């Protein structure tokens, strides 16, 4: 076999390509090795098997999927507007992915049913982003809560229904998302403002 300079990024790129080509149910680590023209053993120097590699691919995909939320955190907006934008982005990111990158979305769904470690990390990152905005809102006098962490967790799970693929085709989806987000924001608002 040809000598290929491997690193984790090259392996992850190849794995994504294999998943997109064959789909998450048929793609396997042998396909990744063939694409890279290396032996199976070469991949095991970087990842402890298919599960480890697929988890890494999904984690990177989720990070990319939610990259826009980092921009939202930097917006020069009051917390209530920023929170609206963030929650709307959370709801729409996975729907967009299901349309624009269906194989990787299917891989995410498959992983969600078999290995929660990567999914739980992504959930905690989302909750942390919401908490950051809630804390900003408290300092601005817009939001009122004694427990920003618990409020962030509640807000995240209240909007979680919109990442379920069963809601993606709902003709009232956008209106439902906006209604739920507005209700949550009103619930966080300082009653004296």
Automatic annotation (TrEMBL):
<dbReference type="Pfam" id="PF00440">
    <property type="entry name" value="TetR_N"/>
</dbReference>
<keyword id="KW-0238">DNA-binding</keyword>
<dbReference type="InterPro" id="IPR001647">
    <property type="entry name" value="HTH_TetR"/>
</dbReference>
<feature type="domain" description="HTH tetR-type">
    <location>
        <begin position="5"/>
        <end position="65"/>
    </location>
</feature>
<feature type="DNA-binding region" description="H-T-H motif">
    <location>
        <begin position="28"/>
        <end position="47"/>
    </location>
</feature>
<dbReference type="Pfam" id="PF17935">
    <property type="entry name" value="TetR_C_27"/>
</dbReference>
<dbReference type="InterPro" id="IPR009057">
    <property type="entry name" value="Homeodomain-like_sf"/>
</dbReference>
<protein>
    <submittedName>
        <fullName>Nucleoid occlusion factor SlmA</fullName>
    </submittedName>
</protein>
<dbReference type="InterPro" id="IPR041478">
    <property type="entry name" value="TetR_C_27"/>
</dbReference>
<dbReference type="InterPro" id="IPR036271">
    <property type="entry name" value="Tet_transcr_reg_TetR-rel_C_sf"/>
</dbReference>
<dbReference type="GO" id="GO:0003677">
    <property type="term" value="F:DNA binding"/>
</dbReference>
């Amino acid at each position: 076999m040809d000598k290929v300079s491997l690193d984790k990024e090259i392996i992850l790129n190849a794995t994504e390509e294999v998943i997109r080509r064959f789909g998450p149910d048929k793609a396997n680590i042998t396909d990744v090795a063939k694409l890279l023209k290396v032996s199976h053993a070469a991949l095991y120097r970087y990842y402890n098997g298919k599960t480890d590699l697929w988890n890494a691919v999904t984690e990177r995909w989720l990070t990319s999927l939610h990259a826009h939320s980092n921009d939202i955190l930097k917006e020069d907006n009051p917390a209530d507007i920023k929170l609206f934008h963030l929650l709307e982005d959370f709801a729409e990111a996975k729907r967009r992915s299901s349309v624009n990158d269906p194989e990787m979305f299917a891989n995410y769904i498959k992983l969600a049913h078999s290995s929660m470690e990567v999914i739980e990390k992504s959930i905690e990152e989302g909750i942390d982003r919401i908490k950051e905005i809630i804390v900003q809102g408290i300092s601005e006098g817009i939001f009122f809560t004694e427990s920003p962490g618990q409020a962030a967790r509640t807000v995240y799970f209240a909007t979680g229904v919109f990442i379920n693929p069963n809601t993606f085709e709902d003709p009232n989806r956008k209106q439902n998302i906006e209604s739920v987000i507005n209700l949550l924001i009103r619930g966080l608002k300082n009653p004296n403002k």
